[in-house]
Specification:
Helix content is 28%, strand content 28%. With 328 residues, it is of the alpha/beta class. Strands 3, 4, 5, 6, 7, 14 and 15 form a seven-stranded mixed beta sheet that branches. The chain has a six-stranded parallel beta sheet with strand order 10-9-8-11-12-13, sandwiched between helices. The protein has a two-stranded antiparallel sheet with strand order 1-2. Strand 8, helix 3 and strand 9 form a beta-alpha-beta unit.
């Protein structure tokens, strides 16, 4: 076993944030009872914020970013995991306050890990990543609140991004009819290939929100927030549900109580970071069952650790389609 490993490290100086690839040893890792040889990671919107410093995602310096990883247990002092187990990590503040997945090695708490579901490789798990796992939590939220394929059309905003792409693929496989909202209408063929029934331009949801709009959607998965989410809420059919998980447009919500008290609309917040372990295990089991692996492959590109910093800027600029896997 090598004593050193390669990782991306973010540091902070008087001049600002620096990002670079460094050689580290186990003494540079943080506390935890399981050490993992990382095979793959991925890039999510939050990783882009961390890598660019455009939002205060990183809370301690120096830090290895990367909110996801999948790999093989190297050492463990926890009975739940043994050497050689294949594992996944999403969230729990990793890549924010605890060293993360853009590294050949990671040490974390066993409570933060789940075992790789049967039928998935570590590369496929990171093609899914936090974005895809969040998408599955959104689908489960719709199901939990009685939204079925028979209820009507489902809207997915930010559709060409990671969460949106996986949400469309899963919903389509489950029999839902899906409309995809995107600012990249040039990606219509890509989105229809994932299972979208129709494509609308995001500008259709960017006008000043009405308290009550024309009812169009039985449910929605929203990755955008702000004005878009307010417009979506105003267009939900009676008793419908919106699963909200993102803030790409903003954290504000210029909405009205009218849809909630006159149409019994439900707005369900979906958090992937601190989601309890049983719920996340359920979501990953569902992904192994309900996500078409061929569609997953069609939305996935692979990059090296050397390309991560540039990809962080690209994802914030809306230049990343689908999912990026980092081959560690």
């Amino acid at each position: 076993m090598s004593d050193t490993f390669k990782a991306i490290q973010i540091n902070k100086t008087d001049e600002g944030q620096t990002v670079g690839i460094v050689q580290l040893t186990d003494s540079d890792l943080m506390d935890g009872d399981v050490t993992v040889d990382v095979a793959h990671s991925t890039i999510n919107y939050k990783d882009g914020l961390a890598l660019t410093g455009k939002a205060p995602v990183v809370r301690t310096f120096p830090l290895i970013p990367g909110i996801d990883f999948a790999g093989t247990v190297r050492t463990s002092s926890n009975d739940e995991f043994k050497i050689g187990d294949k594992v996944i990590l999403n969230g729990w503040g990793v890549g924010e306050g605890h060293n993360g997945g853009f590294s050949e090695r990671a040490r974390v708490k066993a409570d933060w890990l789940i075992k790789l579901p049967d039928g998935l490789t570590t590369a496929q798990a990171m093609a899914i990543g936090t974005a895809g796992y969040t998408a599955m939590l959104c689908v489960m939220a719709l199901e939990d609140n009685g939204v079925t394929p028979e209820s009507g059309e489902i809207l997915v905003t930010g559709a060409a991004g990671g969460v949106g792409s996986v949400a469309i693929a899963v919903l389509s496989k489950l029999g839902y009819s899906v409309t995809a909202s995107t600012g990249r209408t040039s990606e219509a063929d890509y989105l229809k290939g994932l299972g979208a029934n129709a494509i609308i331009d995001r500008d259709e949801l960017n006008g000043k929100p009405r308290a009550l709009g024309k009812t169009l959607w039985a449910g929605a998965v929203d990755c955008v927030g702000s004005t878009t989410l307010a417009n979506v809420i105003s267009q939900i059919k009676y008793g419908g549900t919106v699963a909200a998980c993102g803030l790409a447009q903003g954290m504000d919500l210029p909405s009205s109580v009218a849809p909630f008290i006159l149409r019994a609309v439900k707005l369900i917040g979906v958090d992937s970071v601190m989601c309890p372990k049983p719920r996340r295990e359920q979501a990953w089991a569902r992904l192994a069952q309900d996500l078409d692996i061929e569609k997953l492959a069609s939305m996935t590109n692979h990059i090296s650790l050397d390309e991560v910093e540039a990809a962080g800027s690209d994802i914030l600029a809306g230049k990343v389609k689908g999912r990026l896997v980092v081959d560690i």
